[in-house]
Amino acid sequence: MYLNGGDDLSEILLGVESAAGEVLMLKRIKEIGYIAYFLDSEGSRVALRSML
Q1: Residue 26: what pLDDT?
Q2: What residues are paired with 24 via a beta bridge?
Q3: What is d(CA 36, CA 18) in angstroms, rounded to the nearest whole number?
Q4: Residue 7 above 90 pLDDT?
């Protein structure tokens, strides 16, 4: 399941590490738009998606 990351995932990804998280995969263009994976401060994996 992907959560809606809005228009620009970079804004969210900039705050991940400063909030004790870890970016696993930077945004990458796919057929569905941009996607990113990161671990939150509790170790949960989060997946985000934004449209092209």
Answers
A1: 79
A2: none
A3: 17
A4: no
Rounded Cα distance between 32 and 20, Å, is: 28
Beta bridge pairs of residue 28: 35
For the domain spanning 3-50, the CATH number is: 3.10.180.10
Q: Are the beta carbons of 7 and 50 closer than 8 angstroms?
A: yes
As a whole number of angstroms, the distance between CA 52 and CA 45 comes to 23
H-only helix segments in the chain: 9-16
CB count in 10 Å sphere of residue 50: 19
Residue 40, pLDDT > 90, answer: yes
Average pLDDT of span 25-46:
86
